[in-house]
Amino acid sequence: MGYRHYMYKISKELVNEIKSMNYDELSKKFELTGEEGYFYIGNLPKEEIWEFGKLYWDDTADRIYSKGHPLFEKEEVMNELSDYVPYIVGKEGLEEAIEIYKNKVISMYENLLIDDKNGTASVKQEQHIKNNLSEWTRGWALNTDINDSWLTSS
């Protein structure tokens, strides 16, 4: 088990409204149903842009956070919500995320061209093709649910 990282879109108006609130004010406005005095950040009106998954193996999260600033101005609020690491990263953070993943894809394909401890290039290439073919033949590559805004989860 572990925490996943997400990127959300949230209105500037809402950010300006909540950024200076203390925890009690946030709790009153966005409390978790049935849990008086408990602020649940998931209750903020937002739109999910991307789920990064678990980012424990590299500096992806830190690189994205470095392009922004904390969502809340009060240190007590940021400390209380430290599991969520709520940051505003804007366009620069999104561009950094794209650059990180572009480089990961390039690295993955470069690795498929060399013999190394993970196998020979030809065996790694064959396995990569088989994995991708399996995703497409099983219907996992595209999401055709018209009620879901995600075209793919890949």
How does the SSE layout of this entry go?
Elements: E1 5-9, H1 12-18, H2 23-30, E2 47-53, H3 60-65, E3 69-70, H4 75-80, E4 87-88, H5 90-111, H6 121-137
Antiparallel strand pairs: 1-2, 3-4
Comma- or semicolon-separated keywords:
mainly alpha, 154 residues, two-stranded antiparallel ribbon, two-stranded antiparallel sheet, 4 strands
Task: Write up this protein.
This protein has 154 residues and is mainly alpha-helical. It is built from six helices and four strands; from the N terminus they run E-H-H-E-H-E-H-E-H-H. It has helices at residues 12-18, 23-30, 60-65, 75-80, 90-111, 121-137; strands at residues 5-9, 47-53, 69-70, 87-88. The chain is elongated and about 60 Å long.
Summarize the structure.
This protein has a two-stranded antiparallel sheet with strand order 1-2. A two-stranded antiparallel ribbon has the order 3-4. It starts with a strand and ends in a 17-residue tail after the last helix.
* N-end to C-end Cα span: 21 Å
What general outline do the C-alpha atoms trace? elongated
DSSP helix count?
6
Tell me the strand percentage band.
5-15%
Radius of gyration: 20 Å
Mean pLDDT: 90
What share of residues is helical? 40-55%
Q: What is the topology, as strand order, of the major beta sheet?
A: 1-2
Largest sheet: 2 strands, antiparallel
Runs with pLDDT <50, length 5+?
A: none
Which structural class fits the helix and strand makeup?
A: mainly alpha
Number of strands: 4
What string, H for helix and E for strand, traces the elements in order?
A: EHHEHEHEHH
